[in-house]
Amino acid sequence: MSHENNDHYFKGRGAQINTHNRFSKTKYVTEHIEGLDEELYENSATQLIETFPKTIVSRSESPDVGFNYSINPYQGCEHGCLYCYARNSHEYWGFSAGLDFERKIIVKRNAVALLETFLNKPGYQPEPIMLSGNTDCYQPLERKLRITRELLKTFLKYKHPVGLISKNNLIVRDADILQELASLNLVHVAITINSLNESLRQKMEPRTVTANSRLKVINSLSSIGVPVRLMVAPIVPGLNSDEIPALIKRAAEEGAKAASFTMIRLNGMIAEVFTDWIQKAYPDRANKVLNMIAACHGGKLNDSRWDTRMRGDGKIAESIHALFKLSIKRYMPDNGLPGYDLSHFIPASGRQTSMFGER
Asked: Where does the chain have alpha helices with state H?
């Protein structure tokens, strides 16, 4: 049975359940369901929750990511991608990694002021800061709130390097700022596309723009000198792993200068969310896909091993790595983006000087 025939499939949402928050001592359950007039299924509207944190720049200790610092102006994400590793972090806010993650969005209103404070710390030495390392900084709410745009203005003001990763064509709105940053070698953009199959995209990433729209983003930004990387993420064996050559070819044709990928891993509550979803969306191949995912992570759906968790291991993972390398060699042989230029950075107090001159 496909999800189209399932009365309890929430169209427009990724997760189909609200998982239990592991930090909560209590949970809601439906008992004596035979006494209800109808089952308790809920797909409520998105809720905006404003916060004013004390810091905005997070430091990563992971050797698996290519950056040390990141900013997430939003927690939770309306895109509703089934596989998103950020779902687990929503539990720290007291919410579920399931439906809550995509319908209860936390907004950090004072992000710009906090960034300025961070950049003006005494002795601060610039290094790239990623927007966003967790949830998409161009998710639908950004169209109205414009926090990401103001953050980019701040990076340009201080001539500070910044990286962005998104799957939303809203990023083109900020092409003017990105072009200025690019002219100083201060920006890298990564656009995530993991399938050219529109049916799969609608099910796995229900509130994202189409792959064709994202390819147009690559073209638009590349044409004005903004360096763009294709992120094929995540690769799900049995669902989109055969699309690697076509994705790299199309992205290269639109101007992408680099490509990388990550393997799906289902840590924490994501395993429950994804398993429930795939059994409803693709019941005919659910077990096969889950078994293939496990085969890439030592027989488990989750994987917390440094250097392996995002790449996978085993024969299936090896074949995916080989296909990716062959595709890069064929369609993107000069794979790589220009380095950041850290020399432009100017804090509010001006450049530091010493007896040896400006530094």
From this structure: 99-103, 111-119, 142-145, 147-157, 175-183, 198-204, 211-222, 244-253, 270-281, 286-295, 315-331
